[in-house]
Write a structure and sequence with these properties.
ABC transporter involved in vitamin B12 uptake, BtuC; two-stranded antiparallel sheet; 15 helices
Length: about 350
């Protein structure tokens, strides 16, 4: 059983690793110094650290998107807005305290996570209890959520940059790795631990594959869906926290704008089924980093900023075509035909 699970996981990682490998090869052709790393003020900088740094928020949100997709068979398109609202609360608590201490930042983060949980509970209730399709349910916040963040900000773009928040969004003195990278890896580790020690993965996959069968086996689909949306709320809060500490101010209009589209793409690149069921957090994480590599590759190839969206659209079309069941079945039959041909000739 363990061998079968390992083979299944490996096969699902072929697509994201292949795409990532192709992009790395393109970058190496562009310049052999792609993996070069320099030390500036005791911290590591270069293409790889910059990719890990830039993709921090996307990786965290992609994890939540994977769980929501697996259990509900749909996507949460309000994640960028939810992160903006949660980070607005973080900023206001920080400003109201008027103190630059670790305890103040922890309290502000807890308030932000509480806000994320409320948003997750709202979306989760619509999907799990009232049976609203996830994309329709989350369209409510996607449409009006940034106005809520704007009102929380007091119709301003407040500055929240302090010495401590600057270190959280940048580098802690004496630590060579940028703080958002560390926070992202810690978050990935915590999620991996939760999936290892609980039955969340089994329950989410069971509900996503066949909700009626899951109910007959004693699994409560409403609770499972609701829980995944709560986890998504925490993911958006942490992503918003990282984003606001990076920027040093809160921009309710542009903070993590359209990140939900990249998160859905990361889930797809990770070979996860967008209609729900079996999922791979590892695949989604690799998918998120792949998108960041793609963005930076296009910039490195001196593609116009406005044209990047068009190139990404073409990339998505090709990727979806290659990973479609029709193409996969054709490739499988072609491989089988090649393998059996020499055997017939020998006979």
């Amino acid at each position: 059983m363990a061998t079968l699970r390992t083979k299944h996981t490996a096969s699902h990682l072929i697509l994201p690793l292949s795409v990532l490998g192709l992009l790395i090869v393109i970058n190496l052709i562009k310049g052999a110094d792609y993996f070069s790393i320099s030390v500036i003020n005791g911290a590591l900088y270069g293409n790889i650290p910059n990719i890990l740094f830039g993709a921090s928020e996307l990786v965290i949100i992609s994890i939540g998107m994977t769980l929501v997709t697996a259990s509900s068979g749909g996507q949460d398109i309000s994640v960028g807005v939810a992160a903006t609202i949660a980070s607005a609360v973080f900023g206001q608590v920080l400003i109201a305290s008027n103190q630059d201490t670790v305890m103040t930042i922890v309290l502000a983060l807890l308030a932000s996570c509480g806000t994320g949980l409320l948003i997750g509970a709202f979306n989760g209730s619509l999907v799990a209890v009232f049976k609203v399709q996830p994309m329709v349910a989350t369209l409510i916040l996607f449409t009006g959520g940034r106005s809520i963040a704007f009102l929380i900000d007091g119709k301003l773009s407040p500055v929240v940059g302090t010495k401590l928040t600057g270190q959280i969004g940048g580098v802690i003195p004496g630590v060579p790795i940028q703080t958002p990278i560390i926070l992202t890896f810690v978050f990935i580790g915590l999620i991996a631990l939760v999936l290892k020690l609980t039955n969340l993965k089994l329950y989410a996959e069971s509900v996503g594959i066949n909700e009626k069968a899951a109910r007959l086996n004693g699994i409560n689909p409403v609770s499972v869906k609701f829980l995944t949306f709560l986890i998504m709320g925490i993911c958006t809060s942490v992503a918003g926290f990282i984003a606001i500490t990076k920027a040093g101010r809160h921009d309710s209009v542009n903070l993590l704008k359209f990140i939900e589209l990249d998160a859905i793409l990361a889930v797809a690149i990770g070979s996860n089924v967008l209609s729900g069921g079996k999922f791979s957090i590892t695949g989604s994480v690799i998918g998120a980093y792949t998108i960041e590599v793609l963005n930076r590759t296009l910039l490195r190839l001196e593609v116009n900023t406005e044209a990047i969206k068009a190139f990404k659209a073409v990339f998505i079309i090709v990727l979806m075509a290659v990973s479609s069941p029709v193409v996969r079945e054709f490739a499988r039959k072609t491989v089988e035909r090649i393998r059996t041909k020499p055997a017939k000739q020998e006979v």
